[in-house]
Amino acid sequence: MLGNKIRKVKVDRVSIYRATDIAKNRIKKMQSQLEDVERDPRKNERLEDCKCKYCFYIHNVRMGGAMFTSQQCGLCNEVMSFPSTATDPICSSCAQENNLCKQCSGDMDMKHIRKNRPYESNNT
Asked: What is the DSSP track for 47-103?
């Protein structure tokens, strides 16, 4: 036998009921999140947070190691500090100025634009 032996998971009427409820609740949560993406009920808070709809409503739980972390902004090189290893690629100032999500660095309106963003104009 290769690898570690994992303890058998007991499957019975109760575990099946619980697993079914968990799956149903996760689907309900996803549906609710997708409705929020469409309606954008917390738009002002989302924009103040400099986050796109995906990062604000769907990818809002981030996992990171419990270590204070510093990282440079991907645009202006300002050093940013974070309470964990879950860091943002750009600072809030650059996110606002360039209409980008500070968490994923994508377009805030989730659009592909062809014109230069402010950071591109500053570099030419």
From this structure: HHTT--HIIIIIS------SS-EEEE-TTT--EEEESSS---SS-HHHHHHHTB-TT
> What radius of gyration, in Å, describes the C-alpha atoms of the chain?
20
- What the block records as the tokens of 101 is 């999500």
Q: What is the C-alpha separation between 14 and 10, in angstroms, rounded?
A: 10
How is residue 8 annotated by DSSP? P
Nearest to 61 by CA among 110, 94, 103, 108: 103
Number of C-beta neighbours around residue 58 at 10 A: 14
Query: Rounded to two decimals, what is the model's pTM?
Result: 0.78
Q: Is the pLDDT of residue 1 over 60?
A: no
d(CA 123, CA 112) in angstroms, rounded, equals: 20
For CA atoms 75, 77, 83, 85, give the dihedral sign.
positive
